Amino acid sequence: MILCRTAVQLETALARQPRERTLVPTMGALHDGHLSLFRIARESPGAVVATVFVNRHQFDDPEDFACYPREEEEDFERLRQAGVDLTYAPDEQAVWGGEPPRLEAFERPGLTDVLEGRYRPGHPRAVAAVVSRLFDQTVPTAAVFGEKDYQQLVLVRRLAAERQPPIRIVAAPVVREPDGLAMSSRNRRLDPRAREQAAGLHRTLEAAAESIKDGLDVEQAQRQAFETLIELGFEPDYVEVREADSLCQPAPTDRDLVILAAARLSGVRLLDVVRFGLALS
Ligand code: AMP
Question: What whole-number distance in Å separates Cα of residue 225 and Cα of residue 239?
Answer without folding.
Answer: 7
